[in-house]
């Protein structure tokens, strides 16, 4: 049984939802894993969402929870030397962790980890693009896709390295964005792009643009299934860090997962 560490800031309901889904899938036997601990980068009392996550993880799931506030740790150093602060903070985090794990999952963890920390623990993170695709935040990725008139996008799980979004990908899902459903949205966006370019589209409609929203919606829909199926592949040793079959295309499995979930919800 693979043992994993769960790292989160617990800043919103999505962070708790992801933990709840992973926990439920473990209990159902779908994930051959054990959550050794949940690390939260906030102290009790710092925010209502993180407090709720801490309470649910401890009282309802019976998990070991370690809390250590990043915000309160050496704030002066964080302002003057972020890289040194990052190193010192994660040194302390590592010291607090109760046991060794096979790997860690960053699930709504809002801090960039230090070079030394991600060398000590193999860490997984999600990036809303295909391997080799656009870098940056999910917003930046979508604008790059629109600017390039891309035919597809995706979501990937990659190993965390000191270079942001540059770690080797483990798994991914492809998402076509030139389907019949997308056609009128591209046509509408193209009318603005031809006259005012991307800067004009951003200024005129911004993140309320229908194409932008649709690309985001299709990506978000597949994030949770990709995380769950990646954890399963690691637990079953279908993939391992550094193996030759990486990255693994989980598109078909993700689509089947979504289809089953839809049928279950409709039946309910």
Brief digest:
With 268 residues, the chain is of the alpha/beta class. The chain is built from 9 helices and 8 strands.
Features:
268 residues; alpha/beta; eight-stranded mixed beta sheet; Rossmann fold
What's the topology here?
Blueprint: E1 2-8, H1 13-27, E2 33-40, H2 48-60, E3 65-67, H3 75-80, H4 82-96, E4 103-106, H5 115-120, E5 123-127, H6 138-147, E6 152-159, E7 169-176, H7 183-204, H8 210-235, E8 248-249, H9 251-267
Parallel strand pairs: 1-2, 1-4, 2-3, 4-5, 7-8
Antiparallel strand pairs: 5-6, 6-7
Helix pairs in contact: 1-2, 6-8, 8-9
Note down, in words, how this protein is organized:
The chain has nine helices and eight strands. The protein has 268 residues and is of the alpha/beta class. The protein folds into two domains: 1-121, Formyl transferase, N-terminal domain (Rossmann fold); 133-155 and 175-268, no CATH class. It has an eight-stranded mixed β-sheet with strand order 3-2-1-4-5-6-7-8.
CATH class bucket of the largest domain: Alpha Beta
Mean pLDDT: 95
Q: Can you name the CATH architecture of the largest domain?
A: 3-Layer(aba) Sandwich
How far the N terminus sits from the C terminus, by CA atoms, comes to 33 Å
**Total number of helical segments?**
9
Major sheet: arrangement of strands: 3-2-1-4-5-6-7-8
């Amino acid at each position: 049984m693979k043992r994993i560490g769960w790292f989160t800031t617990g800043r919103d309901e999505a962070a708790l939802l992801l933990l709840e889904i992973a926990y439920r899938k473990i209990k159902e036997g779908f994930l051959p894993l054990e959550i050794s601990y949940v690390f939260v980068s906030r102290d009790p009392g710092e925010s209502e969402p993180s407090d709720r996550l801490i309470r649910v993880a401890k009282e309802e799931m019976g998990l070991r929870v370690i809390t250590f506030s990043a915000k309160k740790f050496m704030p002066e150093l964080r302002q003057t030397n972020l890289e040194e602060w990052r190193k010192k903070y994660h040194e302390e985090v590592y010291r607090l962790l109760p046991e060794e794990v096979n790997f860690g999952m960053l699930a709504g963890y809002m801090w960039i980890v230090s070079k030394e920390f991600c060398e000590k623990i193999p860490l997984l993170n999600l990036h809303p693009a295909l391997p080799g695709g656009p870098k940056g935040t999910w917003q930046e990725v979508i604008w790059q896709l629109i600017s390039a008139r891309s035919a597809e996008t995706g979501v990937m799980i990659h190993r965390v390295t000191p270079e942001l979004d540059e770690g080797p990908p483990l798994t991914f899902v492809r998402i076509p964005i030139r389907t019949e459903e997308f056609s009128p949205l591209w046509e509408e966006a193209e009318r603005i792009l031809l006259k005012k370019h991307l800067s004009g589209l951003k200024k005129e409609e911004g993140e309320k643009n229908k194409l932008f929203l649709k690309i985001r919606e299709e990506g978000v829909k597949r994030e949770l299934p990709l995380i769950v199926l990646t954890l399963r592949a690691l637990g079953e040793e279908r993939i391992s860090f550094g193996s030759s079959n990486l990255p693994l295309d989980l598109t078909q499995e993700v689509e089947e997962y979504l289809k089953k979930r839809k049928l279950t919800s409709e039946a309910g």
